[in-house]
Design a protein that fits this description.
single chain; mainly alpha; 1 helix; 79% helix; transmembrane
Length: 91
């Protein structure tokens, strides 16, 4: 049997629900839920930012490698072509 706190000889019983503690526990669980939600959102944003940064770095590396290969091929073709034409002039 639950006797309310208003009475002078009240008892705390497992069947009693203290409304103050209940509201505090509800509020604290809501705060924990919101903090967990914020933490999950922050982690997802950080992971997405890292993935995007990795993708951008990969694209930049690929572009730099392609440009270097093209420059090397052009230089080799120009040098070989110049030597071939120079040998043709000598012969």
């Amino acid at each position: 049997m639950c006797i309310e706190k208003n009475f002078p000889n009240y008892q705390t019983d497992s069947s009693c629900i203290n409304t103050k503690n209940f509201s505090y526990s509800r509020n604290s669980s809501l705060v924990v839920f919101l903090l967990t939600l914020v933490l999950v959102v922050v982690v997802v944003v950080v992971v997405v930012a890292l993935v995007v940064a990795a993708a951008v770095i990969a694209v930049v590396v690929v572009v730099v490698v392609v440009v270097v290969v093209v420059v090397v091929v052009v230089v080799v073709v120009v040098v070989v072509g110049t030597r071939i034409s120079f040998l043709m002039l000598i012969l």
